[in-house]
Amino acid sequence: xxxxxxxxxxxxxxxxxxxxxxxxxxxxxxxxxxxxxxxxxxxxxxxxxxxxxxxxxxxxxxxxxxxxxxxxxxxxxxxxxxxxxxxxxxxxxxxxxxxxxxxxxxxxxxxxxxxxxxxxxxxxxxxxxxxxxxxxxxxxxxxxxxxxxxxxxxxxxxxxxxxxxxxxxxxxxxxxxxxxxxxxxxxxxxxxxxxxxxxxxxxxxxxxx
Length: 209
Fold this sequence. Notes:
About 70% of the residues lie in helices and about 0% in strands. The chain is an all-alpha fold and about 210 residues long. The chain starts with a helix and ends in a 6-residue tail after the last helix. It has 15 helices and no strands.
């Protein structure tokens, strides 16, 4: 039924923004509901009567003004291995790293390593925007914090986050928000091992632990 509906939607002569959003949401629902692998997702899209038109619509969505829909489109394109489209729209993804919508921003940062590995964006472009990553570490929303803390070690290993950012991490250890502070203390061994903060700096703040 979902495939039939998607086939119908993409054959409309005029795809306005409302219809485009509907196509992206439906595609996300289809691919996300079954939590299917990338390979199966690609095969699924191939079953469309006009897969080329679908990719044309997806290409538009990668640059749509609505950042929530744009982020979903990037997740879909990433799953489908749509490298050509991603490379042609990389500046629109980089904007998402600084989004005021914390769901969008955390999801964008969760995708940076994959996109770097695929050559869609580069380390320097991400590094220029690291302040927006660091601010997420102090988010009041636990889910968003967990996403960015999970990728923090890899960002450190790739030189995006460095000892130059130590003050941010030390401040997190003293945060008045218990959740923020707890997450920061959980990451102390990782931060010490990677040379971001020192044992002595942590000892000076043990009262917050």
